[in-house]
Amino acid sequence: RISNNKMFSRVSGQISEKNDKASTMNMKEQLEILKNDRLHRQKAYDEHQHESAKWNKNSTPNLEDNRRNELDVICEEYGTKIEEKEEFKEKMVKPKDVMKDYKSSQNDVKAQFNKYTSNKNC
Questions:
Q1: Are 120 and 106 in contact, with CB atoms under 8 Å apart?
Q2: Domain with 121 in it
Q3: Tens digit of pLDDT for each residue in 35-77?
Q4: 67: number of CA atoms within 13 Å, CB side?
Q5: Neighbouring residues of 22: CB distance < 8 A, sequence distance ≥ 6
Q6: Measured in Å, how far apart are the chain's first and last C-alpha atoms?
Q7: Which DSSP helix (H) or strand (E) runs through 74?
Q8: Residues ≥6 apart with Cβ < 8 Å to 28
Q9: Contact between 37 and 50 (Cβ < 8 Å)
Q10: Is this model's pTM higher than 0.70 or not?
Q11: Do 54 and 12 share a structural domain?
Q12: Do both 69 and 53 map to the same domain?
């Protein structure tokens, strides 16, 4: 019990020492400490924002970049030279071509259906 009291008095003595120091510190010094602390926090926050912005930029590439990367991977897989890449790009299926093929096949089906139903025997 005595040792605990000694420990407590030692700790409380340190605390009161700090309080005395803070009270004797003039207002200008206290403001300086607060300002430095604020600047330090702001710098840390700015660095964090910068890092997260870089990460977000890397994690969500725009579609054009994504398409280009796909093409690079395909070319590397099949051992295509970079010079041939543009030629390869031309051969890639484009959504518009798919729609044209789909519409023309739909028209063929309609034509066959009309031909079949116009037949008097059915």
A1: no
A2: 93-122
A3: 888 888 888 888 887 777 776 665 554 555 555 566 666 666 6
A4: 7
A5: 30
A6: 111
A7: helix 63-77
A8: none
A9: no
A10: no
A11: yes
A12: no
